Amino acid sequence: MEVLAGTQDFMARVRENDSVFEFDYSKVYWNSRLHPEHERLVSEFARGSSICDVMAGVGPFAIPAAKKGALVWANDLNPASYEAMGNNVKLNKVTTRVTPFNMDGRDFIQHAFTEYYKQTAKGSTSLAPLPRCNAGKRAPKPEDPILIASRSFDHVVMNLPAIALEFLDAFRGLFYRMTGNSIHSGDVNLPMIHTHCFTKSDEPEKDILMRACRALGYPEDQYKELTARVHYVRKVAPKKDMYCLSLVLPESVAYATDAEVGSKRKTDEDSDAQSEDCKLQKVD
Asked: Which of these, 81, 99, 159, 245, has the minimum number of CB atoms within 10 Å of its CB?
């Protein structure tokens, strides 16, 4: 990014979804045209749900979700995005509801699910009401704590559309490694994974589902059996569209015993691509 005239100051302050975001625009990604998509996805998160945001950027999903009453673990590989997200968490007074991380996406998925499962083994947790500013007004009626009852994250968000589908491979065998069981236990919920992606196909839904199957190690000829929906987000080029795949993690994938940690394509090239895309291609 180059300044043609004036002060070389890229600090920005943006309001969206009843939240405030501050960041250095030269170091992170932000696109205000994605406001409707941010709002749409956050609307699917119920009060008392738990969210794993793998590629969180400066927090456009994480912070509004926390304000709504969700517990959020939010990660970004880009140090500038991670720093801005941490500042925005404090700015929006959701420090008790959002925990920021600065890790590789696949490593974060493994770490977050394993640690969350260990923590919830001690019993349900709860979120305290957020602080309110009521200067000069009568104190509001106290709110009850928000119960977080799930043993696993309810939702996963991966909003790096250039490569996010590839990160689905991190979920193969994840619950087997996490629980030590090869059979689904009824007390451990399987998450809904929301993955943003691009496609140039004339059959976008089929293309996206088939690519998801390949990453998950799920039979491609059974793609219609997935519990999934494909939502159109926007056109980013004449023959390139952006979608969001919302997919319930299949039990056969979650408890697969044939997977290794970081299973398929955790290469230096992928890591470099993720780092650059976190800054420049969060959602094109």
From this structure: 99
